[in-house]
Amino acid sequence: MGKRQIGGVLIAVIVLAGAACGDGSSRATARPAAASYDEYVVAACAAWDAMFRAVGNPDTASGSDLSRALDEAVTAGDGAAADRLATDIERELNVGREQVAVAGGWPPRASVMVQLDRVFVAFEAMIAAKRAAARREPNAVDPQAAFEKAGGVDAWFAMIDAMRAAGGGGATDQQCSNVPVTP
């Protein structure tokens, strides 16, 4: 192999290595599934934390800082601000869904996490509708209707039913430290 060929191979290896060491923002990183109640709680609480940062507490409809700012952008018709805020919210929702996938690995609460994931998907639909509303797009769907059409309400109540059916998870159920949720 000549010097030029070796140089080309080295450049290709460096480029591939750099791509493999990227920040991971363009691809999902597989995390090990929860294998115990304690691992489940860590992941489930991280998912709830992400939801509260993204959209607030669904039980109280209090909204988060991000969702309230997005609502203001919608009211003002500020598409650029709505795009930025929706992207931030979507990022949090994605973090939450990744944690739901981890928590769903613990069999006693897998059905709960299936429903929680559906709630996250419905919030994604709601955020997309808010983005469209801020841009004043014709035929923009009402955000609450988008949430409901995506199955958010049904998933919420199915999640609660699944939690009741699953019963207690460990010796003593743990409440999340950052949000008022006992997963």
The gist of it:
The chain has 183 residues and is mainly alpha-helical. The chain has helices at residues 3-20, 37-54, 65-76, 79-103, 110-134, 143-149, 152-166. The chain contains seven helices and no strands.
* CA radius of gyration: 20 Å
Oligomerization category of the chains in this entry:
single chain
Class per helix and strand makeup: mainly alpha
Straight-line N-to-C gap: 60 Å
Total individual domains: 1
Helix content: 55-70%
For the residues shown, what is the average pLDDT?
Answer: 85
Note the overall shape.
Answer: elongated
State the order of secondary-structure elements, H for helix, E for strand. Answer: HHHHHHH
Main pleated sheet:
none
According to DSSP, the number of beta strands is 0
Uncertain runs: 1-28
Number of helices: 7
Question: How would you describe the overall organization of this protein?
Answer:
By secondary structure, this protein is mainly α. The chain has one domain. 66% of the residues lie in helices and 0% in strands. The protein has 7 helices and no strands. The chain is elongated, with a radius of gyration of 20 Å.
